[in-house]
Design a protein that fits this description.
The complex is a heterodimer. Chain A is mostly helical. Chain A has one domain. Chain A is 69% helix and 4% strand. Chain A has a two-stranded antiparallel ribbon. In chain A, a hairpin with a 2-residue loop joins strand 1 and strand 2. Chain A is globular, with a radius of gyration of 21 Å. Chain B has a domain of 219 residues. Chain B has a two-stranded antiparallel sheet. In chain B, a hairpin with a 2-residue loop joins strand 1 and strand 2. Classes of the chains: A mainly alpha, B mainly alpha. Chains A and B meet through helix 6, helix 12, helix 14 and helix 16 of A and helix 5, helix 9, helix 11 and helix 13 of B.
Chain lengths: 370, 319
Amino acid sequence: MLDDIAIRVRQNIGIVTAVLLFTVLYLLYNFAHPRGFSSAVLVQNGDEIFALAMLAMAQTVPVLASGLDLSVGAVMTMVGCFASYLLTGAADGTPLHLDIFGLQLGLGTFPGGVSGILLGIVVCLATGTLAGFINGCIVVYGRIQPIIATLATGAVYIGIALFLRPTPGGKIDEDLNWAMTNSLGDFAATVHIFDDGAASWFAPVAWIPVPFVLLILIALVVWVPFRRSVLGRAVYAVGSAEGAAYMSGLPIDRAKIAAFTLAGFFAGCGGLFLAIQTSSGNADIPQAGAYTLNSIASVVIGGTSLLGGTGSAIGSIFGAMVLRVISFFFRIFDIAPLLQPLFEGLILLAAVSIGALGVLRVKNTLELFR
Amino acid sequence: MSSASLSLSRDDRPILIAALFILVILVAGTVYTFARFGSAPLLSPTYLLQQLQIGAFLGIVAAGMMMVILIAQIDLSVPWTLAAAAMMATSIGGPFAIPVGLGIGLLVGLINGIGVAYLRVPSMIFTLGVNAVMRGLMVAHTGGYAPQTAATDLMRTLAGDRTLGIPNALFVWAAVSVLVTIILQRTALGRYVYAIGNKEAAAYLAGVDTRRITVICFVLCGVAAALAGVLLAGYSTKAYQGMGDAYLLPSIAAVVIGGTNILGGRGRYLGTLIGVVLIVLLNSVLSIMDMPEAGRQVIYGLVIIFMLLVYGRGERVTS
């Protein structure tokens, strides 16, 4: 039994390190925070963590298949811009029209009210998923290297986002914004369930922030079943040895497409939440790039190998949270804003370099070149 | 098809197609300008030289990027290496401006190379971290504002002036190109670079000090980025925040459009040169057409996908 646990810990040393690092950092943060261990702090942190955590999950799946998705930030931005049109919550709906080089196309009216918002959420997530699916098809059928294929599609998605929102704007339904970015109690009160969140049995969980619940829900409902499916295992197999996976008769093409499609879905979730949180759509190119790069950093800190085949999206969530908590510390310890980017970079460098110190123990140099 | 012409075509085909595509862009752009304005600026040497002058900065960055891509690595620290070199060169000033700027590039390349070659951190993530550190250093140095320092006269002359009607920046780009071509085709270093890109373990077993070569490639890339930064500062007479951001992805795209395999080991410098010209001309045609940023991004992405679909397709892994 103990041996079994020891083996499992050794196999997942990356994830275990990320979880421990996060736990220690987050406890320290809460001790140092004047209002630490309160629901308010937790809610604020949850809102700041969610989008990056989703992008980290998104990045993990292609990385496991030893691909890299440089378009996750672009998909997130594009979905956010769609959301800023579809989730306005206007009672009588939103008229949609396209303006392509002066050509006006009316597309009818998007339904309003609650059903409209639900439909809008579905459309937004479907858009992200479709973007990921296109990435997967280009990689598999076009046989273009993932890194360069997604670099190109990322430019296309950012272009669409800019087309939708040349300047930041749009609107998200206030109730939706309130319900999604606060605690479960506020959520229940906004959507009028459980006696507006006042039910006595509900009280013990009412303090939990909605973003954390969503994060756990998405991980349990989407990631865990995927990982246990044949396709999920094929993704791991493709990442560790594509030739062997092919010879074993695994559906490698479908696995790769599934990996990128799932990445699109996760990135779409992140974009949807970011739009809801900021109540607007913004085709911010630097922001999209920063999110993409931070998602790669999260994946690495979360213990997933960039070579593919080992790791987990759960680890990446913790990787993303470690990255974010580091920036929370800047607020607590009053580090001059001018020095913050420097510290962020140094910590990122230190984190990946310490993980690499194992190479000093390698006796056969040839083992380094795999 | 004989094996000789096949092996020739594998590297030459991308270059040829990219060159043809440049012609297509020129013709399409000229037809457009002729129909709309009744003139053909794309065919005037003055205009083309001016565009190439702007393209020289991208060309120099891409030359360095190619060295790194050929050994199957990537350098994401280019944006802030470029900016840091420009900012330090302008703030030092005087005769040491350019050496200091290039020194920054050398130092960053050295750090990148050591991290990637000796610590074996994936270059994707290590250079990303170095980029963040350089950005942090520059933000701390400048206070986050546009630096008030100006480029030296020599920097301005090198980047902005003309000799015999040809922009000096083009001469610098040509010198860099000749140097890279000689390194890749005429020196042992060049052979090693291709060997490492094909299979590092095999190169190591063949007696190549692969880690030293890796460091050298990153140093060359860092110095190239720094040189572009120094020139760009001279061209715009000052350094500014984020001046390197527009060079990272286009430089990778130029290298790949030119037929260099993103997984390393294959590609010719002539291709990178053509890739740069293609991107520069595409940009200038789109700006003549008053294309909004949204359309530019979409077309830019579609062109990369299209070019790679034509000649950049990998082989199926079947064993």
